[in-house]
Design brief:
CATH architecture of the largest domain in chain A: Orthogonal Bundle
CATH topology of the largest domain in chain A: Arc Repressor Mutant, subunit A
Protein name (chains A, B): HTH-type transcriptional regulator
Strand content of chain A: 5-15%
InterPro entries (chains A, B): ArsR-like_HTH (IPR011991), HTH-GbsR_regulator (IPR052362), MJ1563 (IPR026282), WH-like_DNA-bd_sf (IPR036388), WH_DNA-bd_sf (IPR036390)
Oligomer: homodimer
Structural class of chain A: mainly alpha
Keywords (chains A, B): DNA-binding, Transcription, Transcription regulation
Order of helices and strands of chain A: HHEHHEEHHH
Family (chains A, B): Belongs to the GbsR family.
Number of helices of chain A: 7
Largest sheet of chain A: 3 strands, antiparallel
Organism (chains A, B): Pustulibacterium marinum
Strand order of the largest sheet of chain A: 1-3-2
Radius of gyration of chain A: 21 Å
Chain lengths: ~170, ~170
Amino acid sequence: MEFSQAKNKFIQSWGALGSQWGINKTMAQIHAFLMISPESVSMEEIMDELKISRGNASMNLRSLIDWGIVYKDFKQGERKEFFYAEKDLDELAIKISRERTKREIKPALKVLKEVSAIDANATEKEKHFKTQTCALYNFVSKADNAIEKITEYNDNWLSKLLKRLLT
Amino acid sequence: MEFSQAKNKFIQSWGALGSQWGINKTMAQIHAFLMISPESVSMEEIMDELKISRGNASMNLRSLIDWGIVYKDFKQGERKEFFYAEKDLDELAIKISRERTKREIKPALKVLKEVSAIDANATEKEKHFKTQTCALYNFVSKADNAIEKITEYNDNWLSKLLKRLLT
DNA sequence: TTAAACTTTCAAAAAATATTGAAAGTTTAT
DNA sequence: ATAAACTTTCAATATTTTTTGAAAGTTTAA
């Protein structure tokens, strides 16, 4: 396979994968493109490579920056902004995990805590509801703690985890 | 909070959470409803509770069954089908993890293997592409193995994991 | 201050995704 | 074999999400 083919395949696949994870396709594609760019890249270049509009590029770059996985680079003597991706994969995974925890796990826990607090004396249905939502709360809490622990020492956490699991 | 309020809140929140994960809202809501139903439930009841059409119910129930997290129940003397959810959370998480691995991680690994195989002698860009995609391949492989290991012994894997991490 | 070189915003348009509902299909009872 | 009681399918429709592009906003240089 040629480089340009491989590059396209990588960007397209990353975009498709992103969609399945509730991340918009363009955002994932921009990230893919930045991941494989050795130098930081201007908005113009991104628009050109991915064939997207300026507005689209601007908004998705902003999202990536909000997620903390893309940074701005101000080059000496250049007026325009350049962008580069967090390339350390341990760091990338930690940032994504922290962000998703904040956006999804914490709110889910809040809801579970609330709804599991009903007093369930009356019917079988109510008792079962309470049992299940309490169990879910405990499970999600544990998962949350586990993720926290795993990524606590950011340096090489995945290798460390694997080692511990294999002993 | 009253039971019926709590029930609604739970179903709605679970649906919203599903959307963020690339799972369709109705599918997540049906799952939520089945999770809190002590008895298995007919399609009619699901349509009624969630205010959805027969077609929608049918298709999403099928998806849930394909994922292996909802089962059919044929009741004595009843012609219609009833449905119930996998309620053991360890088992549920394992099934979801296996399914997503199969659908997403394996294909991603395949692409990464392919594109990282280019020979990158010419430019800086090509070298960097190779470096990055190889690194990604390794990282994703490790993550895949870790998940495999963690869920290997399905019984109470999350608690076991937490214990190991805390020592 | 002005204007050039940029970036951001957001209403409108396009694209993607989910939902409906009725026709077609299936199963079971008689 | 017929019909009643169901479920599935899928073209049409509705909804949601993404994308565009031009106007408004910002920054820098002269």
